[in-house]
Amino acid sequence: MTIAILGGTGPQGKGLALRFAAAGVDVVLGSRDAERAAEIATELNQLIPGATGIISGTDNEGAVAAAERMVILAVPYAAHNATLEAIRNQLSGKILVDIVVPLKQGDPKLVDMPPEGSATEAAQALLGDEIPVIGALHNVSATTLSQLDHSINCDILVCGNDLAAREEVIELIEKLDVKAYNAGPAQSARCIEAITPILIRINISKKVPFTHAGIRIAPPDH
């Protein structure tokens, strides 16, 4: 399997690329700068010499073309819509996995949701119903993703209007040895995306004795 990660040269994109490649999934990093993406791909491969997945890098359009089914959008929110506009005609037959959180400019402890209600819903509105948009991986620390000597310390909430696509994305994410939960339609992203600034607030608090916390769905202890 080959997946694309657009914004793959950023912290979350690089962390996800490492995790997926280590799990045996080939990854193509997409960027506006194809040369930079290729350089970072080489650096990442050197960090996981025993991995069965290979990381490569190119421009965004080339990465989407290389993806068999899944295209992960990991760009800053400021570039969210423009990136989707540029690749929308290439997404036919593929699933867009939107991990972008619309953090408030100048204050990442708050969200600034678009008129559609969430970044996931904005992406679905922009791309149209024929391209499934699945929101996922919003609440995972980029630092946690990049620390391959530790397991991912949280569960993953997955939402979107297409049930079959949600199930495909859950199957992909669980290759990272995490538990992913079906969180319902795209509207659920309004709640899921809003968890991220809460985690940021907690993680930077001087009163909290840890950083890079995530969320878990806790079963009963009886």
Structural class: alpha/beta
Largest sheet: 8 strands, mixed
* Number of helices in the DSSP assignment: 8
User: Can you list the strand order of the major beta sheet?
Assistant: 3-2-1-4-5-8-9-10
What is the helix/strand order? EHEHEHEHEEEHEHEHEH
Strand content: 15-25%
Low-confidence stretches: none
What is the rounded Rg?
A: 16 Å
Strand element count:
10
Head-to-tail CA distance between termini: 40 Å
Average per-residue pLDDT, rounded, comes to 96
Shape: globular
Helical coverage, percent range:
25-40%
Identify the notable features of this structure and list them briefly.
single chain, 222 residues, alpha/beta, eight-stranded mixed sheet, two-stranded antiparallel sheet, 8 helices, 10 strands, 37% helix, globular
How are the secondary structure elements laid out?
Layout: E1 2-6, H1 11-22, E2 26-31, H2 34-47, E3 55-59, H3 60-66, E4 70-73, H4 80-87, E5 95-98, E6 103-104, E7 107-111, H5 119-127, E8 133-135, H6 142-146, E9 156-160, H7 163-173, E10 180-182, H8 189-204
Parallel strand pairs: 1-2, 1-4, 2-3, 4-5, 5-8, 9-10
Antiparallel strand pairs: 6-7, 8-9
Helix pairs in contact: 1-2, 4-5
